[in-house]
Amino acid sequence: MGQQERQEPTRLPTKKTITNRLNFASAFLGPIVGAAIAVWGLSEARNQTARRLNEVFGQSQVRELDPNSLNTIAEPFIGLEETQLAILRFQIRKYHLNDIFYEFAQRTSTDDSLDTFHQIATEHLFDGIKIINKHTQQNTVETVIENGILGVKLDEQFYNLANPLQFQALYALTSLKLDAISQDTDHKKENADDDKTAQQERNAKNILDQQAIRWLKDQELNVGFIENGLLLADAQSLAAFARTLAAINRLGYENPRIGFFGPDKRSGGRFIEKGPSATNHTAINYSSRYGNIDSLVHELGHYLETVSQAVDPAGSYTSFDQQMKDAENKYLLQVQNKDELHNYLHPNQRQERDEQYAGYFKEYILRGNSLRAQIAQLHKTDPAAAQIYQTAYDFFKKLFKNQEFIEDGLTEEELRYQLEQLSPKAKG
To answer: Helix 295-311 crosses helix 235-250 at what angle (to 10 degrees)?
Structure first.
């Protein structure tokens, strides 16, 4: 593979400087720094990805932990407003951290400043855990030593923070638990009797997201993180990724390798096909400004189209290609407004069919309700375009054995069951 010359690393500010400037840098200097970095150029080239794979998989991240940092409970919050304010500060700081980390991540993957960011992220995680403990007035989350490893215990599960995936899982769970506390205090504060259905649905989705992330934490995934690959994953995005992996597992496929790599000249991710073994294939996420990893779902679509060829040809690229060709030959000339068709379904946009497969896979998994509504509307306004969409939709519906998703990898049945569990009747 081709290889570009890497830039010499530049010495960046110390931890103290970064910490002091975090809160105002994102708001006031972010756009200026972003423009300067865009001119200066990206340091990581796409062609270096494959060469670096074996260097990062299975590697740990060093994080300094105080054994007693979570085991002392502070005085309780004074009123709901103080609780809400503490959670809001935590949530805003997450976005600031990810935003500024992204700017630094584009410069270098070797500078010590990136290690500093990881340590700051750890301290930020602990700030969130302390809010949970202060709210509950007990050690809901605590630091423990298990098998000689210092880590954190949450809901009777141990998290080794030197394991990058377990760190991301714990951070996501902490964020979701804080969201749940915030929603609950909002409800109490406003006595919102007029929107109980929406409140219950948010609570149900929060619980299901936590379940998905705990499932992900327990999987023995072969995961690789480079220094500038990811700081703090978005919790809902991580849960959606987990559910997508689970759906692929239910089809009988092993998990591929998952790589978290630094910013790339293009956004999104990449899929590397290698050898006959499913576990040699690699789905890669390039870090984004907000910690969103939805691009991994697209790359899992590429993985599925590849491995299904030998196991279930009906779900393979070859089958998808033939079905879409048939639909286009039959309906494309009748389409009233070809702009109605997205790029990944429009043959005149020079999109590769494998990108159409992965793109529609992502839509089917993450935005099922929106996709069905779009097709229903097209049946009224542009029936031929609707038929092309419907062909792709039916392909994935058959692949998943008639299982349909509403959003973020959730099914209607999963959400309904959780709502029933939260109902007063179930609690009684």
So the answer is: 10
